[in-house]
Every structure is written in structure tokens, then in C-alpha cells.
Amino acid sequence: MKLVLDASVALKAVLIEQDSDKARLLIDEGRQGLHELLAPDVLLAEVGHALTRAERKKVIPLGDAAIHFDWLVTPPPDIHPSAPLIARAINLSS
């Protein structure tokens, strides 16, 4: 099954939030080949920003942003350019 990994789910997998266990399971199953994880190219910037912000707010210890980011992108989901998908995403979301 093809699933789109967005930043909110990726962040749930590394930060302690509601449904973090489900997000980690989804990523683990993707790594096992049970799902094909797809992601827009903006995922990397969104996750990087959110993790460094979590460090500044002391949600996670200083230095953990890089560790969590590396875990999320090793191996990386199948990254796709987001620009061609934005109009369709807006349409689906509205």
C-alpha cells in the first residue's frame, strides 16, 4: 500500500505526542516493506525546522534534533517534488 508521510506524522514518530506509537509503527512497517512511504520534498525542511524548534523550546534536549532527523530519513521515504502536487492537494483538502 502506498502511504504519504507528512511532517505531522513524521514528528509524532520521534516526539512524545498522542499516537506516537502509531506513527512509529507506520514508519517501521514502511521500512519492512509492508507499505511504500512517499513524501513531498518539503517534508525534510518542515521536519528539520520543527525539530530545531523543539530543541529551542526544550521539548527535546539540545542535539537531539539531528539524531531524530537522521532516524526519520534513514532510509528516506520516496521523496517527490511538491510543486506539481500543490493544486491537487488544495483541491483534496478543500
Written account of the structure:
By secondary structure, this protein is mainly alpha-helical. The chain has a single domain (2-93), classed as 5'-nuclease (Rossmann fold, 3-Layer(aba) Sandwich), CATH 3.40.50. 55% of the residues lie in helices and 12% in strands. The chain has 5 helices and 3 strands. It has a 3-stranded parallel sheet with strand order 1-2-3, covered by helices on one side.
Helix-strand sequence: EHHEHHEH
List low-pLDDT spans. Answer: none
CATH-level-4 superfamily name: 5'-nuclease
Helix content: 55-70%
What oligomeric state do these chains adopt? single chain
Sheet of most strands: 3 strands, parallel
Number of strands: 3
Regarding CATH, which class?
Alpha Beta
Distance between the termini: 25 Å
Proportion in β-strands: 5-15%
Inertia-based shape: globular
Count of the domains: 1
Q: Using only CA atoms, what is the Rg?
A: 14 Å
Biggest sheet, spatial arrangement of strands: 1-2-3
> In the CATH classification, which architecture applies?
3-Layer(aba) Sandwich
Can you tell me the CATH topology?
A: Rossmann fold
Overall pLDDT, averaged? 95
Count of discrete alpha- or pi-helical segments spanning 4 or more residues: 5
- What structural class do the secondary elements suggest? mainly alpha
Outline:
The protein has one domain (2-93): 5'-nuclease (Rossmann fold). Helix content is 55%, strand content 12%.
What topology emerges from the helices and strands here?
Layout: E1 2-4, H1 7-14, H2 20-31, E2 36-40, H3 42-56, H4 64-72, E3 78-80, H5 86-93
Helix pairs in contact: 1-2, 1-3, 3-4
